[in-house]
Amino acid sequence: MKKVLIIAYYFPPLGGSGVQRILKFVKYLPKFGWQPTVITVGPTAYYAKDESLLKEIESLNITIIRTNSLDANAVLKNKYDVVKMPKERTRKILNFISDVLFIPDNKIGWRRKAMRAVGELVKKEKFDVVFSTSPPTTDFLIGRDIKKKYKIPLVLDYRDSWMNYPFKYFPTPLHRYIHYRMERSVLRAADMTVTTSRRTKEELLRRYRFLTHNDVTILSHGFDPDDLTIPSVDILPRIGKMRITFSGMFYGTITPVYFLRALALVLKKNSDLRGRIEACFVGLFKPEYINLINDLGLQNSVNLLGYLEHKESIKYLLASDVVWVIMQDDLTTPGKIFEYIGTRKKILGCVPAGYIRALIEEAGGLCVDPTNVQEIADAIVQLYHLYEHKQLYGAKPEIVEKYDRVTLTGELAKIFTKFLEV
User: Which is more confident, 167 or 222?
Assistant: First the structure.
């Protein structure tokens, strides 16, 4: 078994979609001859915890090294385990303060602690490759530090863009320039860069002329076929309504407001559909959105489930007729879309023109403008008519197969193996 050292601040038992990609790589890399060791943060306060995720890899004897950090969440761990998501206005203020004070992000206090752990580790073991995944971009700085100090080949994993991340603020031109210099330094140190979409790859190639086409490869998000294999006794019963399910967190421009207003409009204009459509939300839900549900009179049409363990959330996706996603930009690549594709359910994409819309339409989904309430309402009615005639079809098998996480991990293993041949 060859050895890969993985740098990932976000790792189970932290929950949410941000940990899925790296967890599944860790789960399947041994299948392709690579033994992972993970360096991640120790106990920390976070919005979602999911202990069940660790059970997926407990039989593989994966070494997970957890180190302390000086970031705010790690400090809060002494008082809290799971923290509530702040109101949107509060979140924006906190993010702005954080982006003013911390470069590249508020996880920079983990860098020194992580490097100390790496130093102890490399005294005992030889690693063939370092794999660093971002966000947070502090992970990339740690990867660069390891490459410079220990001369181990470095592979970067861009889950999202650094400079064009829509939830990142650059308070001054100086802040933006410092980030640019950091990213350039990290990319110069890397032996290979992986991105989740062609859009991010093209962005990097335009910005940094020293990169060649072969320096950046695309390895998309995906779904784990194991997750979608539910024993028959655990399958949720159908409810006699068209269930439209969202799975994930709302923050920034990722908001349920337009969808909820559209649903209220549908039920107002089509009274016969009241009681025949259920909007199901799996994940954290802010109080201001609950107030909106009440204001719109949707109490009997909305099912709020809160945060569920990953396997439980999958049960609801599989028991749904339609799954939906909202994005008001085309700059990030939500991992949940690929899980949606894996379920072969009809996808309602409230997304702008671009990469994400093309992806959903390739999977047989229906896309509309993310902020156009009338368009969303028309789409809901259209989907209901398809539901009535049992014509809600999802992605075709050949599309689904492209995003199998086992296959994608095999591609990552091939990338790692290139460095053994040099």
Answer: 222
Residue pair 30/60 in contact by the 8 Å Cβ criterion: yes
What region, left, alpha or beta, does residue 30 occupy, with left being phi > 0 and alpha being psi -120 to 50 degrees?
A: alpha
| Angle at alpha carbon of residue 11, lines to 185 and 399, rounded to 5° | 85
Which residue in this structure is represented by tokens 């700059």?
331
Per-residue tokens: 30:
């041994």
Helix (H, G, I), strand (E, B) or coil at 281: strand
Extract the tokens encoding 36.
């992972």
Contact 143, 2 (CB under 8 A): no
Q: Domain range holding 310?
A: 232-401
pLDDT digits (tens, 9 = 90+) for 264-298: 999 999 999 999 999 999 988 888 899 999 999 99
Q: Are residues 397 and 409 in the same domain?
A: no
Tell me which DSSP letter residue 130 carries. E
- CA-based nearest residue to 384, from 304, 301, 289: 301
CATH, residue 349: 3.40.50.2000
Q: 353: which residues sit within 8 A by CB, 6+ positions away?
A: 330
In a domain, 227, yes or no: no
Is the preceding omega at residue 104 within 30 degrees of 0, hence cis? Answer: yes
